[in-house]
Description:
Blueprint: H1 22-31, H2 43-56, E1 61-65, H3 68-77, E2 84-89, H4 93-96, H5 101-104, E3 109-113, H6 122-125, E4 139-146, H7 157-169, E5 173-178, H8 181-188, H9 192-195, E6 203-206, E7 217-221, H10 230-236, H11 245-255, H12 259-278, E8 285-286, E9 294-298, H13 303-307, E10 314-317, E11 322-326, H14 333-349
Parallel strand pairs: 2-3, 2-4, 4-5, 5-6
Antiparallel strand pairs: 1-7, 6-7, 8-9, 9-11, 10-11
Amino acid sequence: MQQIHDTSIRTFASDNYAGVHPAVLAAIATANEGHVVSYGLDPYTARLQEVVQAHLGEQAEAFPVFNGTGANVLALQSSLPRWGAVICATGAHINVDEGGAPERVAGLKLLAVPTPDGKLTPELVDREAWGFGDEHRAQPGIVSITQSTELGTLYTVDEIRALADHAHGKGMLLHVDGARIANAAAALDLPLRAFLTDAGVDILSLGGTKDGALGAEAVVTLSERAGDGLVYLRKLDMQLASKMRFLSAQLLALYDGDVWLENARHANAMAARLRAALEGVDGVDFVQPTQSNGVFAHLPAGVADRVRESFMFYDWNGESGEVRWMCSWDTTESDVDAFAAAVRAAVAAA
């Protein structure tokens, strides 16, 4: 097929804009040879279970799916009764960016709590953790957090453990949306188990696509309290891959080794480089700490559109002038330096 896109274009819009890591492409090609049993009864999916358990403990069980929304919907739906509700941050991906799928597909009520930094606390959870036993109120049954958050911030191990203990004490579970879980592990410099399984998380949406996969995520159950009926719900929600070997092979390419972590460390480092290049520039005010691979800043009026003539990125809040800059596994130092120079020039011309 003829290449029809401009390969010279570089962006800071989303880590989804980046291509597929070469190791993932190679893994897909390797898995493509010959005939292999379908619907997950293949050696790649079996090996994935071993790899996930090595990262997260012997009780962990992985269910590969096509995308992050599917992972979140399945994780939540399999952990709640029909009358259940999810406590999450107002800016959570499940509340803002999934087209209502948790509510429309899973049939769950989202109880969203405003947060200044994208992070929930036990005190914030308690704003919606009430009405237990009240037949007129959807019953809070799970707390969902994102690591790293939609604002690029991180939960510490102690913060996650406090949330897990608080949720469990009220008879609820703790779910982690880990679309960028690799970036969190790289920033915390901790193994996945340390801030997931050992911190009390019950169920995880394990990310792959934003870290270099073509399109592969997984729901991972970490405790017996979560994931009821997942084996049936995955088919019901149209997330059961017939040729599952190709999903599992992608996740193996990342997690059966250090590719996942190397990619995330690089993306985080590029975000830190970008922030450092723009620190002190008049008119560029950073909104959140840069703890993973996202940079959030306010720009003077008109500057964002001027920079977008050369580099694509998104407004986070158009009214306030807040923008989001994302770095990915294939962002280069020269990309960052050129982008920072474009921002400085646009600010100077404003």
